Amino acid sequence: MTKKQNSEKVTYEIDPYNRLIIKKTGKKSNLSRFRQAFDGRFKIDKNNNIIYSVKSPMPKGEVIPHQVKLKGKWSLSKDHNLCLSLDKLGRNTLGDKLTLQADIIDTTKNSLVFAVTTRTKENTQFIYTLKLQGAWQADKHNRLTFKVQRERGRHDILTFKGAWEVDRNHQIVYRYEKAQLIRKQKKLHTLTFKGHWNIKGKGRLFYVLDRRADAGFDFKTSVGVFKDKYIKYEISIGTAKKWKLTLSGKWRIKKGVGLLFEVKYKDKKPYAIIFGAEAKLTARDSISFKLKNELNKDISAQVQLSRKMLKGDGLSFLRFLKSKDKTAVTVGAGLRW
Q1: Quick check: pTM over 0.90?
Q2: Which of 23, 84, 204, 250 is the Cys-Cys partner for 11 at CB 3.0 to 4.6 Å?
Q3: pLDDT of residue 134
Q4: Ramachandran angles phi, psi of 230, nearest 5°
Q5: What DSSP designation does 294 have?
Q6: C-beta separation of 179 from 170 below 8 A
Q7: Residue ranges of the domains in the chain?
């Protein structure tokens, strides 16, 4: 970032140890007059602006603030470093771009946390964290993004351009390789998003991070395939080919709720996807369900369940369905039998 100060320009950079460099240059001669890396650390304020707290003593005759506030637009580099494109401040050129060599260490329902490693002039190394507040979303290409909230309703988008996958615990996992700054050896980083799957509509699959706030990833998919022990979708991420996402679980019917598909997650506790449905008895006492979401909107999917899979409330519903003499019955929305 460049700022006019009495016919001088001030430029900010970041060195390989994540220290702020302040450089003053003569306006007319363009000869370097002052350039120094200052010990200190970055921090994020409540509006997701970044501030550098300077700890180094100032050179004699130089006046440098103890805190430098930098404004700009956040992004994520191809190496998954945190970048800030600084705002243009009365200049004829675009803002400079600062890149923090930072590792992503945590992803919560409304934040993204980076670990920053730095060194003092005494060669002491220490690590601290930076936390951006915002919301997770999926973009139109089903890539994971983080929406950083800014002042006056503005926001910046950090895009994770690699492909994510689903592990055996049905949780979203994102992996990326990154070269270490000093040794240049690549290290594999793994981010796990804790949540649950839900189905909201035709060709839509939702990964819930916070059910109370309806926060999570809304993915575009093919129409789902529903069988007795699994639900399967095809999904593409970015320019990648389509791949299959399979949720394993079991079906059951619950009075006053509807048709449930229970999926087990890492904590071993099942999480139920709730469906409305039009149910009809078929041959050999199996039931055909035309599925709807929990708000009873059609999702263009069907599943057929055999009698041996229906226990408890399911058998009670089977007897109720038989009494209707082949008439289709709506399940869900508080229906009792």
Answers
A1: no
A2: 23
A3: 95
A4: -155, 160
A5: T
A6: no
A7: 2-193, 196-331
